[in-house]
Amino acid sequence: MKTPLNRCLKEKDAMCAIVRFRAIALGLAITVTGCASPPSADVDAAKAALDRAVADRAGQYAAESLKAAQDARAPLDAELKAQEGKWFKSYDKTKELAVAAKAAGDKAAADAVAGKKKADAVAAKEKADAAAARAMAKMAPVRIGGQIRAPTKIKDVKPVYPAIAQSARVAGVVTIEATIGPDGKVIDAKVVRSIPLLDQAALDAVRQWEYMPTLLNGVPVPVLVTVTINFTR
User: Fold this and answer.
1) CB under 8 Å, gap of 24 or more: what pairs does 62-65 form?
2) 12 occurs within a structural domain
3) Domain range holding 56?
4) CA–CA distance, 214 with 141 (Å, rounded to integer)
5) Of 132, 150, 168, which closes a domain?
6) pLDDT, tens digit, for every residue of 134-171?
7) Measuring CA to CA, how many Å separate 191 from each of 144, 188, 195, 206?
8) 89 CB-contact burial (10 Å; exposed 0-12 / middle 13-18 / buried 19+)
9) Is the CA virtual torsion 83, 84, 85, 90 positive or negative?
């Protein structure tokens, strides 16, 4: 025969069982959450990607991409530090940040490789162009006449009349033989008719002149021209 006391005891036992079950479940949840481990593999991969970008000289060849990678790494480090101070840890956000940081690091590394390749190509072209220019400059200059027409001057610089020459009332014509390079710039100049007080002023002016390149059979060649500089008081 069930009495109110028996019912009460059974209900109490059931409540105790429920409380014990909930306590066990909560303990398991605390254990699982409290012992959650950081995504070390993802974090290490993100760090390695950034280190690789730096090693590939992203700072020189892909500065913007490197900065983006560094900016992506900062919140990852901050999140890891924040989780260290928590009793109940959750690393879902950490993993997301690590994946994003790795992607940014990989991009910076790839951009650095591409940037270096492009820079090397430009440097190689500049070196080849310089070598070609030196080779052409070494060609024996041809004199004006026959098929070789006098080049057209495109940049003229007037000589500065030296004050000492003016004071000494020195005037006259200085004749200069100039070598015009394949690119139209004066690469050499020498006085063939001299007025000592005026020679240097004449040379300084002529060396700044520029001409249209002279072509021989469609190829730019150096030419010799004779020019005169007239100093009048």
Assistant:
1) 62/108, 62/111, 62/112, 62/114, 62/115, 65/104, 65/107, 65/108, 65/111, 65/112
2) no
3) 33-132
4) 11
5) 132
6) 776 667 888 888 878 889 999 999 999 999 999 999 99
7) 18, 11, 9, 11
8) middle
9) positive
Tokens of 50: 């950034």
Does 147 fall in a domain?
yes
pTM: 0.50
Residue 202 corresponds to which tokens in the numbers above?
A: 């004449």
Q: End-to-end CA distance of the chain: give it in Å, rounded.
A: 144
Q: In terms of domains, do 126 and 148 share one?
A: no
Q: What is the pLDDT of residues 83-139, one digit of tens each?
A: 888 888 889 999 999 999 999 999 999 999 999 999 999 999 999 988 877 776 667
Write down which residue in 132, 160, 180 finishes a domain. 132
Tokens of 203: 């040379």
Residue 125 to residue 116: CA distance in whole angstroms: 14
State the maximum Cα–Cα separation within the chain, in Å, rounded to a whole number: 147
Task: Note whether 223 and 151 are within 8 A (CB).
Answer: yes
Query: Is 24 part of a structural domain of the chain?
Result: no
The number of CA neighbours under 13 Å toward the Cβ of 10 is: 6
Two structure tokens written together for 110: 């790839």
Residues 99, 42: Cα–Cα separation, whole Å: 6
